[in-house]
Fold these 2 entries.
Entry 1:
Amino acid sequence: MDASFGPEQAARWIAVPGPADDKYSRGVVGFVTGSARYPGAAVLGVEAALRTGVGMARYLGAGRPTRLVLQRRPEAVTAEGRVQAWVVGSGQDPDDVDELTAALRERALADPVPTVLDAGALSFAGRATGTRVLTPHAGELARLLGRDRAEVEADAAGAALEAASRLSAVVLLKGHTTYVADADGGLLSAASAPAWTATAGTGDALAGILGALLATHALELEADPGIAAPLAATAAVLHGLAAERASGGGPFTVLDLCAELPATIRSLLAG
Ligand SMILES: NC(=O)C1=CN([C@@H]2O[C@H](COP(=O)(O)OP(=O)(O)OC[C@H]3O[C@@H](n4cnc5c(N)ncnc54)[C@H](O)[C@@H]3O)[C@@H](O)[C@H]2O)[C@@H](O)CC1
Ligand SMILES: Nc1ncnc2c1ncn2[C@@H]1O[C@H](COP(=O)(O)OP(=O)(O)O)[C@@H](O)[C@H]1O
């Protein structure tokens, strides 16, 4: 039986900065995302994280995605340094990244902080040393489990739970209803997104939102890694509500969704 997770629950998981905060105490999210083949995914993740609210977004990658990230978001920091959470794999094929990106990916996986494993990093989940949150769609989860996509779609919640238990991870399975399963058999579900959300790049934005939420809850996650599951469900709710605002009943682009994140969060905080 899953617990449906909505705006009321999500509002509890937004870190509001206080007068004593600075950019580092708010949290730094690091990205090793994008590639020569998919540079745009790097831009979308960073954009989404900054719009969700974070002390700093640090982007590490090859020249082209780095230039594109900076062009869109000059506030992104492209120098190495400490982070409180990583987002790895969006816009990457597991065996088709340049040497620099592969080395950065290894360093991120070896860093024992919470890590979002998306797209091309899903198959490296076993190597991640921090709390892992996987963000597959049904096709990716089917590959991870060695099943058919149709089988996963027929029992999405069951497949997410199986993967979470097998990989000792939180698994956020994307779809019209998004399921968040944890390794202890906990299951949350969020269904706030319109079907217009099924457009290329929305998953890259979701990974960025989640990275920002993990980074801004670093201390709480250290004390209780179990909160990664409600934080993942919060990311799905924010993403879905921002998509709904961007859509208004029609099509929208991923940057439109990102642009709606601040107003979505304001409205959740206002209750
Ligand atoms: N703007 C960007 O840079 C974007 C990058 N993306 C990245 O693209 C990579 C692949 O993600 P996917 O979600 O496409 O991976 P999938 O596992 O869904 O698909 C893998 C490949 O199978 C093929 N394929 C599968 N179903 C197909 C269909 N019905 N029609 C045509 N071709 C089909 C495509 O060639 C695709 O590249 C990931 O690294 C992802 O992060 C996507 O997020 C889209 C946007
Ligand atoms: N029919 C649908 N209704 C609502 N949301 C959807 C639907 N299909 C996909 N989504 C959402 O769109 C996003 C797609 O992510 P993903 O498949 O990773 O795309 P991409 O890799 O192109 O970024 C996910 O957040 C998913 O939950």
Note: The two ends are 27 Å apart (CA to CA).
Entry 2:
Amino acid sequence: MPVNLWLQSVDFLRDELPAQHFNTWIRPLQVEAAGTSLLIYAPNRFVLDWVNDKYFTRLLELMTERNNGEVPDVSLLIGSRSQSQVQQPAPAPAAPPAPVTAPATSQPAPAPVVAAPPAAAAPAAKPATSNEPAEGKSVVTRHVSSLNRSFTFDSFIEGKSNQLARAAAWQVADNPSHGYNPLFLYGGVGLGKTHLMHAVGNHLLQKKPGARVVYLHSERFVADMVKALQMNAINEFKNYYRSVDALLIDDIQFFAGKERSQEEFFHTFNALLEGNQQIILTSDRFPKEIDGLEERLKSRFGWGLTVYVEPPELETRVAILMKKAEQGRVALPHDCAFFIAQRFRSNVRDLEGALKRVIAHSHFTHEPISIELIRESLKDLLALQEKLVSIDNIQRTVAEYYKIKIADLLSKRRSRSVARPRQVAMALSKEVTNHSLPEIGDAFGGRDHTTVLHACRKIAELREADADISEDYNNLLRTLTS
Ligand SMILES: Nc1ncnc2c1ncn2[C@@H]1O[C@H](COP(=O)(O)OP(=O)(O)OP(=O)(O)O)[C@@H](O)[C@H]1O
């Protein structure tokens, strides 16, 4: 129940704050649920800015903890609930109740520091502007972006697959808006794009704690825009996004087909670039390949630097597992990390998920992590995988991909159009199944194991030298293992 989430968190915050602060800033807030979202009403802009600035991040943290780690959808608004049942936090004990509609004027009012909207100006004196709807309605103000503090450069494992992306992100973090703007990271799911984006944001905030770094998913941008339109607050929406130091938008492919959002984003994008404010975007594909995205956006996305994040190679996957285990203070033997990494190839999120399951199993059974324990705890996933990545399935997938017949893969034909896909299929069989070289040779029309070995070496070489082969191989690997 979202309202309870808020009330419990506020209750917790009450113990962390001096009573006078609680009563002045938190108590006047009212809460209302709107579907799965929470609307928090502040009586005036001054309280809103102050709460936004000083307490909102902490409140979001508290709510996230109580919401199984999921960041709830919360908006801070000016106004009050229209219904009769106003949910207001109870006052903190041992302190006189604070005024509900205005903060104590004797209270010193330092300027807002983080993520304050542009209009965050003088206390309570701000008159209603033409952007502000009539009394009783609310002006939408963005919630403070909540960066995941654990997504840092330190916790990001570098490997060949993400080296360029990491270097570019680091460059942006170190020298925002003067290097690559926008930075566009793209690649398959769960490969660390969001992690890198947050790492930049965290670094910017570390260097300049007052920086306005706003992270959001593209769907949130769309939803906020719709809400702003409904509430006649589109100017405030525009001003907010144009006032940030860095705008981080995840999964930009969700803009596809949403013309009004693209239009708004287009203008925001231009304004930010002109103002030398940093933009970082992620997507699951190359900008030009996002169907339903306006050409002018596609072309602008390429103005800075566009970097592909590839699935990590085996060594990197092992290093990621070792790092995650170390972070969780869990003893993970190297051969166990290797065993898991060999089997979860295309997505770091799944890799992490597998490790979490193994760790949980080890806790429950009070047994140290071993290959046997891993087999037991990941039984269903491993069985599923083995089924998916049989040599038969590899042959079928490769034949479909290259538009040739399975029989060609097994035949003696040596033409390049058949021989290369056959080598790719053999190399994949070696990489993703546990079959031996002779077994693989047998499955490919009774070939010798040295032929399979040669194919594996050849494909490894070509993946280094030939971008097309490398892309084909990665695509196939992803199809087979995700
Ligand atoms: N190189 C890496 N080092 C450490 N952790 C990583 C690395 N790559 C990914 N991860 C972890 O994998 C998980 C998924 O990464 P992330 O959310 O950044 O993926 P993504 O590419 O943004 O995927 P999606 O497109 O689904 O949003 C995160 O927990 C992240 O910390």
Note: The pocket of adenosine-5'-triphosphate is lined by residues 151, 155-157, 162, 189-195, 251, 282, 284, 320, 348-349, 352 (CB under 6 Å).
